[in-house]
Amino acid sequence: MNFGRGPSVVLNVGGTRYSFSREVLKDFPLRRVSRLHGCLSEQDVLEVCDDYDRERNEYFFDRHSEAFGFIMLYVRHGHLRFVPHMCELSFYNEMIYWGLEGSHLDYCCQRRLDDRMSETCTYYSAEEPPGEAAGGPGGKGRRAPGAEGGKWLERMRRTFEEPTSSVAAQVLATVSILFVIVSMVVLCASTLPEWRAPENRSVEEQSRYTAESVREPSGIIEAICIGWFTAECIVRFIVSKNKCEFVRRPLNIIDLLAITPYYISVLMTVFTGENSQLQRAGVTLRVLRMMRIFWVIKLARHFIGLQTLGLTLKRCYREMVMLLVFICVAMAIFSALSQLLENGLDLGTKNKDYASIPAACWWVIISMTTVGYGDMCPITVPGRILGGICVVSGIVLLALPITFIYHSFVQCYHELKFRSARYGRSLSAEFLN
Q1: Pairing state between β 58-61 and 51-53
Q2: pTM above 0.70, yes or no
Q3: Among 39, 180, 182, 242, which one has the highest count of C-beta atoms within 10 angstroms of its own C-beta?
């Protein structure tokens, strides 16, 4: 901590005092409290808290003391629950002030918050964008050596990671979306017979990246898109805080899966030339080129809807596994019974579509999901009765985990909406300035 004296500091929250050492504040779980460690002047301190007593080295926050007591219990024990007899929305407002989100609540309280927010259609926005350094854009205090370089890297990271954080981020996100759309249009158009007919090339030749194919309009457009995505990925890797975490992120893995097939195909063409080895690799190259469809998922960086879907799947993996278990158990039971009733019993009417249990599994899955392609159906009376039971059971089994997934989806959407609103505040300020 670069401001104040004494080995410890005192937090006064609504009249209740808490004493901490300076080193504890550095990595404090509450973002607003941890920002005190980097304050350089009294003006920086007053941007974080409501008042400051220099003699006592005491920081005053005009907030709900009882709510902060429950938040401190979360800091110490890792469980965050609502204060009894306190409005859920008021407590959630306190959480946002101190830097917490709905995901920090215990599951039972998350459901209460989801229900309350759905009833009132309430949206909160924090008072300042998260990640803003102490003595942020509005601060006028002196900066520590190297602070400007760190601030520049943080701006670059937010520009590439948060599309609503600034005007430059908005422009960059728009350009990235245009490149994704153009690349998808070229990929879809390249599969049309009218597109390939004038070229008069074989299937294997179409999968190669030769000098002639690169000079074609589609090859030029594809090379430009790949160059943009590659440069974007490299810059985001350079400005990232944690390189290992950057590589492990799902969206970054998708970026690599979308970019690397192009370079692999080019390298295979360079090293193998026009010999038969490349001809035999034609199928592999076509598969690699088709992996460009993953570029569509890159839109998740710019649309809250896709981000909500991914975050919901991440948090509801237990419910998804439970749903798959339900389906697998039902498939095993109904496929065995349908094969026995339609083909296994010697009743003089054998249905060849149900010759085996694996073949009957296809009928079970399309029946449980109420798709019903009609390519195979039971012809015996017991088989049709079993089919009706299978359809009803599928509806019930699929509906059981939906409630849990729905609540998680609402929670994820609210969290991402709040974060977008916080960054939108900095964007509005940039327009005004």
Answers
A1: antiparallel
A2: no
A3: 39
